[in-house]
Amino acid sequence: MTVDDSNRKPSRGPAPIHLIPWDPDSQEHVDRMKLQRIACGWKVEQVDNWKDPQRKGQAGLHWVVLDPNHPETPSRLEKHFAAHPGEVEALLDTCKTILGRLHKPDPLTPFFWPVGHIALDSVTPIPELQTSLSNGVLSLMNFYISTALQNLGLGGAAMYYCEKMAKEQFGAKAITLETIANSAVHPDSPRRIAMKRPIPTVTNQDWYTRHGYKVYYQRDAAWVDIDETGKEWPTESSLLRKELV
User: Fold this and answer.
1) Residue 229 within any structural domain of the chain
2) What is the pTM of this model?
3) Are the C-beta atoms of residues 22 and 29 closer than 8 Å to each other?
4) pLDDT (tens digit, 0 to 9) for every residue of the chain, 245 residues total?
5) Which residue ranges does the record assign to the N-acetyltransferase domain (predicted)?
6) Total domains in the fold of the chain
7) Does 88 fall in a domain?
8) What residue numbers bound the domain in which 170 lies?
9) Would residue 4 count as lying in a domain?
């Protein structure tokens, strides 16, 4: 997951956004997802593999969409388009089902411009996430907010509405997620130095912690990064959980 947002929870409620399901049978939706994964920096090659889980109701990938009635939406969209000119075309809300439930598009917003995406999944390939809808545990996956619109509270709002959806629509008791561990990004981390990654102002792990998530497990080699010399760096991850009840 990729996050870079305000360190503080919004004091007047979450930023006004909508979550609209990703349509795995729409080439326009698939192409846009690939563009956003390129901007995110990883997993673009996995987008086609997300289609079947989305159809089966195992993955709940949603677009993050600005509220069309918010006064700052036009200027924010202009900033997004300037940074990502390949995303100027609107998408149609064509998804038929999401997480096994029928989806009915809002007739007032038949088309939209996504500025990010977030998944609320009922099945994941990581056993330690304990993802199981029957046990009341869903997992946040594949999280991205436009690089031009970070630090505006949009990431926190997407998290808020995913948590609300999980609890109210699916009866979930908890949400889990995986993110890069603090140990892999601290200033003296050999992996960070070799990969020439900047020192984050706020780490992903700390950002999630500030939104109520607690670390319960760590994986020593969640994935492998390869530096410019070809050397492999097994990367540590942290698994976090938030109780919804």
Assistant:
1) yes
2) 0.89
3) yes
4) 333 333 333 335 677 899 999 999 999 999 999 999 999 988 999 999 999 999 999 999 999 999 999 999 999 999 999 999 999 999 999 999 999 999 999 887 889 999 999 999 999 999 999 999 999 999 999 999 999 999 999 999 999 999 999 999 999 999 999 999 999 999 999 989 998 888 889 999 999 999 999 999 999 988 888 999 999 999 999 999 999 98
5) 114-182
6) 1
7) yes
8) 17-243
9) no
